[in-house]
Design brief:
- By secondary structure, this protein is mostly helical.
- It has one domain.
- About 60% of the residues lie in helices and about 0% in strands.
- The protein contains 5 helices and no strands.
- α2 packs across α3.
- The longest helix has 13 residues.
């Protein structure tokens, strides 16, 4: 079954960070297989995204100014 990039990004976000849900639990919650979710997470952790892909993710998950500053080590507006 084809999934949109936005859906994949939402699932990856749910598997990352301090309130992360593991792939097995998320699979039961959303009806996507655990191997598929794990594959998306591995790909997200090992992929260098193009600028266009970063912009798309930013549109789905916008950062507030303070988060952007923290993510760039205080260099807001600069790419790491």
């Amino acid at each position: 079954m084809p999934y949109t990039d936005a859906f994949k990004a939402q699932m990856v976000k749910r598997m990352m960070g301090p309130s992360a849900v593991n792939a097995s639990t998320l699979a039961r919650q959303v009806g996507v297989s655990q191997p598929t979710l794990s594959q998306w997470l591995r790909a997200a952790n090992s992929t260098t995204w193009s600028l266009q892909e970063c912009v798309r993710v930013g549109e789905v998950f916008p950062l507030h100014d303070a988060e952007a500053v923290e993510a760039t080590g205080g260099r807001a507006g600069e790419l790491p």
